[in-house]
Design goal:
Blueprint lengths: L1 H15 L9 H8 L4 H6 L16 E5 L6 H14 L8 E6 L5 H13 L4 E6 L19 E6 L4 E3 L10 E5 L1 E3 L13 E9 L4 E5 L5 E6 L8 E5 L5 E6 L4 E4 L7 E6 L8 H17 L5 E5 H11 L14 E5 L1 H10 L2 H24 L6 E5 L6 E4 L14 E2 L2
Parallel strand pairs: 1-2, 2-3, 3-4, 4-6, 5-7, 6-8, 7-8, 8-10, 9-11, 10-12, 11-13, 12-14, 14-15, 15-16, 16-17
Antiparallel strand pairs: 17-18, 18-19
Helix pairs in contact: 4-5, 6-7, 8-9
Length: 405
Amino acid sequence: MRRAKLQLCNLSENKNAKDRLSELPDAILIHILSFLDTKYAVQTSSLSKRWINLWISVTNLNFNSSSFRKLNTFQRFIVNVLKRRDNSISLNGFAFDCRGILTFMCFEKAFNYTTINGVKHLKVCIGRMGFYNIPIFKISPVSLWSLDIKATRQSRDVQTQFCFAQLQSLSLDGIAFDGSDLFSKCTNLVELSAVNSDVNYSNKLIISAPQLERLNLSFRKFRSQISEMVLSLPKLILFNFKAPNPLVLQTDELVRLKNVTIDVDSDCAQWDIEKEKEYSRTAMNMMQKLHNAENVSLSASTFELLYVTTGPMENPPLPFGNLKRLKIIAGSMEQQFHERKETSKLNELHKRISLIVFKHLMNYVLRKSPQAEIIIDIGNSSANSWKGETPNLLEEQEFQPKQAN
């Protein structure tokens, strides 16, 4: 009885409560609706007479098939929204996420709409629909600033050159290239990310972009056949690379390069000594092309691969003459071993890292960069850090490194 009285009191208080949201000006309400899933933005039209036509002025359209039980309903909704939206309002963003099979007519209407309305930011998540059937390359090359394409089921081939003159940011996930230079006509491209990538029909990938500053590449572990990469990126500052094998790298002098992350997981070569030595030499040559970097991060597997040919102290040091910080990342491998429950391998890994780092890394790396900071990141534990010092670990068995800030 008491609980019922409390509920009645709350209801009466809510009825008398002031609707502060409706007091906001239309411009602010439309701005808020532009960040919602378009389905929910349209549903606000049932709140009151004032809200009926607010949604037609949104500057972003966000379509997601997961908000609908049936794809037919999703398709009809898209067509109706595009018919009713106020086309005098410029379209800033268009997001399209569909995990099923839609008709080509629906896709064509959606992307034709973005072209007519000069969309600036486009985000597309492709399910089963083939990449060839999506008319992305019909979008106006003048208006588009950022493009994000993701293939959720399998790699989609791209054999058409990206010709977006104003494009500044391009993100590709699960996309396969034919190896040719697809980005050279994106003359204003600043950031390029291609993860879970493949290269079909060729073993070489060519990337040239005169304004590109940030490049993030990740190739599939068991599918990638790429062995060579050609970079023409005079303004490159940041380079992240993850692949099952190192690549023969051809590039001009990267004078602006500051940050490099390399993760080569060469499990396929661990039982083939000759293949491992070949990978090791390729990895070292790759490092030499990136010698201007100041902050370098290497996975534990990458560092071990380098050690195959660089272990003896008579070999030349790592080629990073401007090195300020070197980070060895072992956390991902530690997690991988935990998932496999192979604790003996994990202990062996830690021992190998300790031998490599403590006996050789300090002397080996710091010969060329004596003031560089070295960080050993082992995941959940605090990273250990050394700077400008080379402890003699062969004699000091209980050496305790200082903790990184």
